[in-house]
Amino acid sequence: MYNLQSSVALLLLFGQNIAAQNSSWDHSLYTSSPGVFPSPNTTGIGWEDALQKAKQLVSQLTLEEKVGLLTGEPKGPCIGNIAPIRRVGFNGLCLQDGPLSIRQATYASVFPAGLAAASSWDRDLIRQRGEYLGAEFRDKGAHVALAPVAGPLGRSADAGRGWEGFSPDPYLTGIAMKETIEALQGAGVQACAKHWIGNEQETQRNPTVSPNNRTIEAVSANIDDRTMHELYMWPFADAVKAGVASMMCSYNRLNGSYACQNSKALNGLLKEELGFQGYVMSDWGATHAGVANIEAGMDQDMPGSITFFQAGPSYYGQNLTNAVNNGTVPMSRIDDAAHRIMTPYFFLGQDQDYPLIDPASGSVNILGVQPYLDTFQFGEANIDVRADHADLIRKLGSAGTILLKNTNNALPLNKPRNIAVFGNDAGDPENGLYSLSLTGNGDFEQGHLSVGGGSGTGRLTYLSTPLDALKARTKEDGTLLQWNLNNTLLTDPTPNAAFGAIFPYPDTCIVMLKTWASEGNDKVSLLPDWNGTAVVEAVAAYCNNTIVVTHTSGPIVMPWADHPNVTAILAAHFAGEQSGNSLVDVLYGDYNPSGKLPYTIAYNESDYAFARITNSTELRLTEDPNAWQADFEEGLLIDYRHYDYYNLSVQYEFGYGLSYTNFSMSDVKVHRLAAQNLTARPADAGTIPGGNPLLYDTLYEITVKVKNTGSIAGDAIPQLYLSQPVDALFGRTPVQVLRGFEKVLLGAGQTKTVTFALQRRDLSFWDAVQQQWIIPAGQFGVRAGFSSRDIQVTSGFTAL
Ligand SMILES: *[C@@H]1O[C@H](CO)[C@@H](O)[C@H](O)[C@H]1NC(C)=O
Ligand SMILES: *[C@@H]1O[C@H](CO)[C@@H](O)[C@H](O)[C@H]1NC(C)=O
Ligand SMILES: *[C@@H]1O[C@H](CO)[C@@H](O)[C@H](O)[C@H]1NC(C)=O
Ligand SMILES: *[C@@H]1O[C@H](CO)[C@@H](O)[C@H](O)[C@H]1NC(C)=O
Ligand SMILES: *[C@@H]1O[C@H](CO)[C@@H](O)[C@H](O)[C@H]1NC(C)=O
Ligand SMILES: *[C@@H]1O[C@H](CO)[C@@H](O)[C@H](O)[C@H]1NC(C)=O
Ligand SMILES: *[C@@H]1O[C@H](CO)[C@@H](O)[C@H](O)[C@H]1NC(C)=O
Ligand SMILES: *[C@@H]1O[C@H](CO)[C@@H](O)[C@H](O)[C@H]1NC(C)=O
Ligand SMILES: *[C@@H]1O[C@H](CO)[C@@H](O)[C@H](O)[C@H]1NC(C)=O
Ligand SMILES: *[C@@H]1O[C@H](CO)[C@@H](O)[C@H](O)[C@H]1NC(C)=O
Ligand SMILES: *[C@@H]1O[C@H](CO)[C@@H](O)[C@H](O)[C@H]1NC(C)=O
Ligand SMILES: *[C@@H]1O[C@H](CO)[C@@H](O)[C@H](O)[C@H]1NC(C)=O
């Protein structure tokens, strides 16, 4: 693509590489996206037999029928629908939300959110969550689960959807994506990795209308090529490598061009570079053109009509048929899209004995739309698909609960005499068990938050609240349990108001805080909702054993963290339907906490300012259609990469979390598996899903010994961080990046050896000039420990 002979090109290329550097940020480089055409055909790598079946089926279809596979049926029974073509024995596709539950369905489980699952750092539990989710989608007759989420990755702490995905660290998210996708698809359900890509904020995610009725385009995520590869694409590469069936293109623009019609992102990065063999569907309403979308590589338009859930004008449908008939779009592009859509269906055996759609699991429930009863086939209504999944939900809820502070032996609780519970997060929700609304009808004042809002929510069948679970547990020990759940009363300035009716004074005070978040809205503050900060202060002023529990959508700031009367802090996020039981298991030591922070808790809101969402009053009133520009100037330096690079102290670092026992680490060893003639650049070994297969070769193994030095059994989570050699040509490089973790159960006194495998990609930089992953020359630092700042042992190697 580049001509290295030309000095003009060299200058341009130099700009490409140092673009990750803030000092040289040049917005003019981000005002257009290169065109990458034509859209590559699928070759069915890994799915060869299924591709033949797909081709066989598609070859029998008329143009209108093919286009039907590419266009949602807006009035079907599911959140997304592809109409059946009975003539060829195709029963249609049912697509359902979302990442933590089959969202609208009755009698389905609500699992811990992605962020809570990632906090467990437990591959096995994450995989089991995916298996059970898959089983529930399948049993409800859903062919496609609109899950999992790797975008937003978590650039901005205030992003409204951060909790749906896993972690701002791409390595941790990538592993969670792989485990979830393999598990969902293992259950026979197509996964849909979303949202590709740069979907890091909700604010202005869609076009709006200005005061003078002009169309103001969606925010443009402007991301340099290295950052794109090393951060935002990384977990999606893992998704493609795991064989994900579909990907959802996002609402935002990229370098000024809508993600669903950005040929560089879809044809170039996804289908050519990553070798993605499945299909790209639009986010709901993210299509803005038609011909430009299909040419750029978007295979399927959802929900299929310009107006949601109403039959009517479509950018695909008849428009696409016309565009083929008048010669604008080649039939081969339609064929390829149809092949891509039908191949995973055959690969997963969805043409055989697939359960019929439960009619009580679709949009009919929320919108009062009549499904096309004569078009789609239905099974039994309201079938209970939960099986024994609550056991896993309870365990994963505990495993994802992070013990941030524990002084004076506050925890685990040991038959306390007198507990008081404070805060509006503890008890029953005041209004129903379903929080769809994008404007916050789940943001009730009273009641426990176990899930966020929007398409990522779930319909609870029951909810174990912390108060209910504590009532049951305290009864066993004869403990007095009292509570005040009214945050207004709790923060009344009258001295001691919080304790009003509580008598005698509790020996243990548990304060429960929450922060709501939902698709469609970013957060305006990183303080807990409902004056939660003041609630902690009001209780801690009078109770010298104050245990704070947070159920949040992501990072909050904790100005009270070092308060001497705050003896313990537990961060639990959105833990799903067993939330109360999961918490009580940790509080009482039935589960020895092992969760670790999947992000950083800094001291002040201003500490997150380096990558907050793009927003201002001026932008809200703009008449410039192009005004919303999110320049990702921080490049690679998000979350811990930022705090490490600028050597800033933080409240609780990435990877941190305590246990009721203690661990030590020793004996780090570096084992080279790579041949001595290792080259910086991988040989060209073709493309498999995930890219060049050599990127996934294990080149090194690092081993460490981990010992439980305490007196009870517990799970350690040793972590491996890698410091890559710094080369100024590449701009700002993180001080260290996560490149390994394991969860190991150790009995008291027990020692185990843990092995971390380093693949070629783990060592490499993305070189924007060579358009290649390159292993840098120089010394790599190996740093292993129990958090990003609790490094216990170090070593190093030179790879080349
Ligand atoms: C956006 O622009 C940057 C700088 O020109 C370029 O490196 C990157 O590849 C572009 N990305 C897309 C998706 O167009
Ligand atoms: C896709 O395959 C069709 C049919 O074989 C062919 O005509 C078309 O050129 C191919 N497109 C690309 C981009 O290779
Ligand atoms: C914008 O359009 C709406 C309805 O289409 C109309 O009521 C309103 O007067 C218009 N405002 C301006 C400033 O033109
Ligand atoms: C085709 O798309 C245009 C928008 O570009 C829309 O106005 C029109 O109604 C669509 N036609 C059909 C038949 O859906
Ligand atoms: C072909 O049809 C498409 C979709 O209706 C339309 O956008 C395009 O302008 C048409 N092109 C020609 C040359 O008629
Ligand atoms: C909380 O207490 C205040 C003050 O007594 C009262 O006005 C408010 O209605 C109570 N809130 C709830 C949710 O009960
Ligand atoms: C929060 O609590 C403080 C301390 O009691 C009080 O001064 C303030 O008015 C409360 N704020 C809100 C929004 O209720
Ligand atoms: C801690 O709690 C005790 C009551 O047990 C109280 O007297 C003291 O003032 C509190 N300390 C702080 C710093 O609020
Ligand atoms: C906490 O306060 C209680 C009385 O309220 C007192 O008995 C106890 O010693 C105090 N604990 C500490 C660690 O100060
Ligand atoms: C965005 O800015 C507007 C205007 O200043 C403000 O009202 C709104 O709360 C902001 N939204 C977020 C999520 O910060
Ligand atoms: C980039 O540099 C400017 C000027 O030094 C500074 O104000 C800004 O905060 C920096 N941005 C980032 C993301 O580091
Ligand atoms: C490196 O050495 C191995 C074994 O000696 C050989 O098979 C391989 O082809 C060599 N690779 C390169 C890139 O020279």
Automatic annotation (TrEMBL):
Residues 1-20 form the signal peptide. It is an enzyme of class 3 (hydrolase). Keywords: Carbohydrate metabolism, Glycoprotein, Glycosidase, Hydrolase, Polysaccharide degradation, Secreted, Signal. Its main location: secreted. One of its GO terms (biological process) is glucan catabolic process. Belongs to the glycosyl hydrolase 3 family. Beta-glucosidases are one of a number of cellulolytic enzymes involved in the degradation of cellulosic biomass. Catalyzes the last step releasing glucose from the inhibitory cellobiose. This is Probable beta-glucosidase G. It comes from Aureobasidium subglaciale (strain EXF-2481) (Aureobasidium pullulans var. subglaciale). The lineage of its organism: Eukaryota, Fungi, Dikarya, Ascomycota, Pezizomycotina.
